[in-house]
Every structure is written in C-alpha cells, then in structure tokens.
Amino acid sequence: MHSLANSAALAAREAEPGLALLRQREPVDRTEGLLTHRSKFRVMVACMLWGATSAIGIGVPGLSRADGGGLSYPFSCSWGSLTGDFAGRDELPQSQEPPDTWYRTDAQGHYQNGGWGPRADALPAPDVPQNAGCDSAIWKRERILAVAMRYIYSPDNPLGLQYRHHHIPGWQPPTSTYAGVSGENPDTDAPQGLAAWDPGPGLDCSNFTAWVYNYGLGIKFGGDVHRQADGTAGPMGTRISADGPFEPGDVVYLHPKGNASLASHVVIYIDDAHIIDSRVSAQNRVGVQVRDRTGWYRTAVLGAWRPIG
Question: What pTM, to 2 d.p., does this model score?
C-alpha cells in the first residue's frame, strides 16, 4: 500500500491542480476459485469555503467521512482511465471562433455575443479505456463527476470557476462583460447583482452542466437552463421524474421558490446527500462547489435528464 507521502507524489503527477489523490488497494478476493482484485480511488478535493478551507471528495455509491473530517468518495473505475486524456482534451479548441476575435468589443465597449463570449464547439466523444476496471455505464457516470471536480473553485486551483455568464471556461475577459441586458439563466434564489458579469473565468449553472458533458463525454447540448429543462437544448437523454430515482451524473433542475413550473437552476447529482453546481454563492461557498442536497436543493426539484444511456 502506498504511504501518504507516496500518494501525494502520485497526486501531483496524475491529478489536476487543486486535487490530491489518495489511492487504496483493496485486499485480494477469491470467488469460486477465480482470483479477482479491484482498486478503489479516493479523490480529496480542496474546496474553498467562505473564510475557511475544507477537504471534500466525490464519488459513488456515496460520500463518507474521511479521517481529516472531510468527505471522500471511492471511485469504482481506475482514476487513470477517468482522467488520462485530460491533457489531450485541454488542447482541443473550446470554440470554433478564432481566439484572436474573442475579446473584440463594439462601439459601446461591450464584448461580443451580449457579453457571453464565444460559444462552445462540440468535442469528440472519448472511448472507454480498456483498463477502466468498471463497465461503460459506471465509467461514464464517474467520468462526469471527475470532470466536474476539476472546476471546483478555490484560490489554489487554476481551473476553478466562479459563477459567470460565459459559454466556455477558456474565455477570461479582463473587464466586466455586462452589456446592460439580463442573463438568460436567472438564479432567482441567489441574487447575483453584477457579479455574474465580473472579469475572469467562470460558467453559470447550465453552461457548467453543458460544458462538463461536452468535455467529458462529447455530449453537446446548449447552455440555456430553460431549454435544457424542456429537453430542447440537444441530446438530453432520458427524462427522470422529480421523485427519481437519480443516478450520479444526472442533471437535476430546480424551480424558483415562487414558481413551481419554471426551471431556474440545474445541478449535477452525486448522491442523495450531495450535488455539484455553479452559483454566485450558496451554503457559504462560492462558484463551482459540492453542496449539500438539503432545503431548496431537495424540495424544489422539477425533474432531471440522464444524458448517459
């Protein structure tokens, strides 16, 4: 078994900035004379809280309390199979629009596309690696969680995203993108002011879910929260009722407190107690974070889509 120091070194080589990987090898099992073994991975992610830092990990079938007080998630699939192509996918163009045009402004000094920047290009679907150690359906679900985790916001994660009205994470405007128009994805239960248009990288709730599926599995749907919820944004998959049951990776839609028929927010389901989403601030956490599935997150569910077949 790897020591903690060796695990930390492995994390630096294999995980994204801001992530620490702790690898555990399970004991060997013998079933009907056949020798089998399985590796489990726990991914501990440093998450920025409002004025404090805690460690949290994500996975299936559920989060458990780690020794340090944080939460850990044991992935069934090998971590290398889930993340091994990240470096290559990071080199793919995020948009068909030439980067040298991204930051052009009009006569009023406003960025293109109403302040949203370039639209996302469709990325190719990855192959499920032969060394995944799990079936393809589980790999795809855990792949979505692994991709979403890359963008958890903290000061020491260069990939971390705050809540911004952008289409792609690669667009990083140096000044406010506010063009005097309202956002197409209003999160009425978390007043945004102009924070959603601040400089720097970020994604709003539904552009985050759209990007995670595009990057992770090559499933491309649009970033409008209403069209996603209606199933008209692209290949949204199977509709799931508000009562579930939900699977890891499902995109779950919530309604405003004052209107139970209109989607205003979307999250990625982890387990019955946790989701990952992008908000200006919620539960004293900023931007993309793992949050507790309590209160409004549980009571305001409209339904979900399962893009993974």
Answer: 0.79
